[in-house]
Each structure stands twice: as structure tokens, then as C-alpha cells.
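SAMPLE LOG
Freezer: B-3
Tube label: C17
Construct: single chain, 375 aa
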Amino acid sequence: MKIAILAGTRPEVVKLAPVRAALAARAGLEPVWISTEQQGALNAQALETFAIEPEIRLDPPSPERTLGGRFAQIMDRLDDVLGRLEPQLVLVQGDTSTTAAGAMAGFARRIPIGHIEAGLRTFDLDQPFPEEGWRCVVGQLADLHFAPTEAAVRNLLRGGVSQHRIHMTGNTGIDAVRLSGARVTPVPLTNGRRLVLVTVHRRENWGPELEQVLAALIRIRDSVPDIEIVFAAHANPALRGRVDAALTGQDRIRIVEPLDYLGFLSHLKSATLVLSDSGGVQEEGPVLGVPVLVLRETTERAEAVEAGVARLVGTRTDEVVVAAMKLLNDEPERMQMVRAVSPFGDGFAAERIADIVSRWSPVKALGGEQIRAAV
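STRUCTURE (predicted):
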């Protein structure tokens, strides 16, 4: 069985690398990695970390195009390559443009779709945008839904997905943390100061929300003398310029270039606290025993909040400061969140996915006259 694995961003590479390895270890399965190059340098960085050389690399989408224009470019190029490759299954992960464009390209060619990390929902198309929309689209098109948690399973059932299409596997991001193992070593602390790690990149936080978070970081720094704030920059130039303007030259605040996967995990492992709007960090932080303050109004990973290892704090300056100060100044309070638990699985999701795929066979004819253009 030829299986197309579609990826173009760092999170996709991180979460699909364990799946590729698990599929390749099974007789009769031929994974083919197709890189859409959606994220450029970050994608390349992650591929190198996991020693993956894609079988197929597409031309990257134009940075000059709009979100919809880039989506159209990715879908058009995937349509072409899927037509030449003729896989029996297309695997997509998460909620990126590559994910939705790949699912739509596969669907239009009547190729079955497997969705890894299926069923995550906020039920608000604006938060996060466009990711909530992309994963809802894939949720309607997929033949195999690999849900990470029971809550994700319930969301899929609520959306009308048939139970026999849903498989609860855990999240493959936890597999990636487990498999990284000894390669992740804590980073040295500056003069013994506690490390507070920060990431911000969600589109809903590109506006005044970013300014409020940056103001909060300065207030937190001023109030706690034994911390150093490390802001892991994002590659987006619009975000980077505003972060640099606000934080460059600030005492006990460091801006670091976009970290590779292992470098980020090393910083996270050393952190006393992490403030982030990243979905992946909500999964990784609990595994490494680091409390997560989620810089968003809602999250599709409510399991971490329910388990007490993450808290939703939004982006308003006062609320971010109060939440951070509570954990930085009250160690017993912080320790209640330091439990090194994983609400998202045991780190063997990829093996379960490979087992399911190896036993699966498509129930509908592939391709045929129906894929031809209509007037």
C-alpha cells in the first residue's frame, strides 16, 4: 500500500515523523513523504532534526500571495503530484493549509484521507483562524480519523462522523517527545535565574493582543528579580519587528532566533513557566512537567486545562501578569501544576496508527471518470 504523507510546516514534520517510521517498519506499507514547503526554513529545520529526506518536494507557495492564494497553490501542486503518484491513502496532520489543501486534493481524486490529530475543536471559526476552519473541512472529508483523546472522539461524533471511522490513538506529538529522549538536555540558566519561556504566533494575536502580551512581560520582569524571560521568536517578519521594538535591550529579557525542535524542548525542559499560544506547547509542557499559561481565549486542547497542567489566561496585560505572578511567587501553587502527566497519550500513537492502516483497505473505487473536469 502506497501512503502519501503530506507535510509542510514544522509541527507537521514533528508529529508525522514517528508515523513515517512506524509505517516503514511494517511489511507491505510504502510511506512517501511529500513536502509542500509551506513553512520554508522551519520545515527544513525539522526535516533535518528527524533525518527525513522527502521523496517529493513541491515548489513553495508564494509569500506574496494571500492566505487563500497560498492555499490554492498548495492544492494545485498536490493535485498534480497525487495524480502521478496514485497512492492508496493520503495522510494529513492537524490544521494547516497543507492539511486542508491536501485533504481536498485527495478527495477530488477519490483517494481516501487519513486525518492524524482529528477532532480538535474550539467551535469558534475565529479562534484559531484559519486552523479551526481547516480542521473542520478535513473532518468532513476524512475516511480515517485518528483522534488523540476521548474529547476529540466526542467532537467527531457530534459532527456526524461515523463511529467506525474514528480511532482513538493518542497524539503523535507525545511520541516525538518520547523518541527525542536523551537528545533533550536542559539549557544552562543565566546566573542561576529561573527561566520563563514565551512564544506568540497565532493570527488572532497579531493585533493589539501582541502589544498587551509584550507589556505584560516587562511588568513581570520588573516584579520578579530572579527570572530571565526568553522570547522564542517566530519567523513571521511582521511579528518579529514588533517584538524587537518592544523587547530589544530590555534587562533580563532575551529574544532568541526560531529554535529547532530539540532546542525548543531543551529550553522548555529548563523552564519554570511557559507562556504560549501554541497548541504543541500545551501538549509538550505537561510531559516535561512545565506549567503552561495559554495566551488565548479558548483552546482545542482543553484536556490540559482540565488536568490542571495548563491555564487559559487570554492576552490582556493585567490578567497575564496576575496569572504569571501567582505561579512565580507561590511555589506550592506552581507545584500543583508540575506533574509531568500527558493528557494526550502515552507516546505510542504512531504504532497504533500504523497498526490500523496495515489492517485497513479502501471500500470505494479510486479515481475513475468522476475525477475529470466538468463544464
